[in-house]
């Protein structure tokens, strides 16, 4: 295990970013999201969650895929190449690390999404254990340990120090690169810090929410439950829950023409929108109940059916951000998910 004084984190950031992009949670306009580090930027370890998850680094909210230029009878296609430079992402929480595993299942399965795959191949991820999980967190219900967040390197803040351990070859290489800044230490300080975090976790109201009513093979049991009628009523179909979610992966592809140049780009889309997957015959889910049910059945039943894991990671972003306080916890509880909260 390696140690660095928290006050020296900027030296660590400067060393990493000397020859590559470094993404980390940065405050801008009152919100904290992943951004590209510039010398002097400050990392605030008290911020638990970015508004948008780390998904935005590997699967950006909007990205160009190709451009087309027409000039008279000439038509030229210029594909935009996937990322080919190494980069590092710092400060990823355990829930978002698990969220990346869910995205991997989708984007790295055949047919592989080359844009996402290139970012995953070139990105080194440094996670940071959550020092102060919040009341909206329920990652532990999904078997996630926020004190051992995983990724290429995992870090935990222990008093005045931040302690790193590498989990992969990429992680070892990155710690080697900044070895001059780090000193060796044993596990005892990290263990103490993790024990304090676990005390907080044990008191969280949603930490032990019961998911046994959900999971693989539950479609028949849950699809026509009458609770959906009431649950969907308050939903505004705003899509906020899907945009902040680390595992939602739907997107739309459009062309945008200016003069002779057309850019093909893709942007996140939301199954909560009434025009989602609109086709010539209309939409597959014409009413709100169908759209609402789809989101939760997908996360809690269909994804487990297909990939053997839930595609909710208990980050609590939708719990905190839904404008009408409707969220996945209410859905889980309405159909059998009991807890102490
Ligand atoms: S559940 Fe909430 S955040 Fe999601 S679409 Fe409905 S109103 Fe918006
Ligand atoms: S459904 Fe809500 S709690 Fe679950 S991963 Fe998505 S935003 Fe987080």
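^ Assign residues to that structure.
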């Amino acid at each position: 295990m390696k140690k660095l004084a928290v006050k020296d984190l900027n030296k660590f950031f400067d060393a990493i970013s000397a020859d590559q992009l470094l993404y980390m949670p940065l405050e801008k306009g009152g919100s904290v999201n992943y951004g590209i580090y510039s010398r002097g930027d400050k990392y605030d370890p008290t911020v638990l969650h970015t508004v948008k998850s780390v998904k935005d680094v590997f699967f950006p909210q909007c990205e160009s895929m190709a451009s087309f230029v027409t000039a008279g009878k000439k038509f030229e296609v210029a594909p935009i190449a996937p990322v080919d430079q190494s980069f590092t992402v710092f400060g990823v929480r355990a829930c978002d690390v698990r969220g990346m595993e869910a995205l991997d299942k989708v984007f790295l399965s055949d047919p592989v999404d080359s844009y996402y795959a290139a970012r995953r191949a070139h990105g080194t991820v440094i996670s940071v254990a959550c020092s102060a999980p919040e009341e909206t967190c329920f990652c532990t219900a999904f078997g996630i340990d926020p004190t051992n967040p995983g990724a290429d390197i995992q870090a935990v803040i222990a008093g005045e120090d931040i302690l790193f351990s590498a989990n992969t070859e990429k992680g070892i290489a990155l710690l080697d690169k900044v070895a001059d800044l780090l000193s060796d230490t044993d596990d005892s300080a990290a263990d103490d810090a993790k024990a304090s975090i676990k005390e907080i976790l044990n008191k969280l109201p949603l930490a032990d929410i019961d998911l046994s009513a959900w999971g693989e093979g539950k479609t028949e049991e849950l699809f026509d439950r009458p609770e959906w009628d009431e649950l969907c009523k308050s939903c505004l179909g705003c899509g906020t829950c899907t945009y902040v979610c680390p595992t939602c992966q739907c997107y739309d592809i459009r062309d945008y023409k200016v003069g002779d140049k057309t850019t093909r780009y893709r942007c996140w889309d939301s199954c909560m929108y009434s025009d989602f997957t609109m086709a010539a015959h209309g939409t597959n889910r014409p009413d709100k109940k169908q759209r609402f049910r789809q989101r939760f059945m997908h996360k809690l039943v269909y994804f487990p059916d297909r990939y053997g894991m839930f595609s909710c990671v208990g980050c609590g972003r939708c719990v905190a951000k839904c404008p009408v306080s409707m969220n996945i916890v209410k859905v889980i509880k309405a159909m059998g998910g009991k807890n102490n909260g």
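The chain has two domains: 2-203, 219-334.
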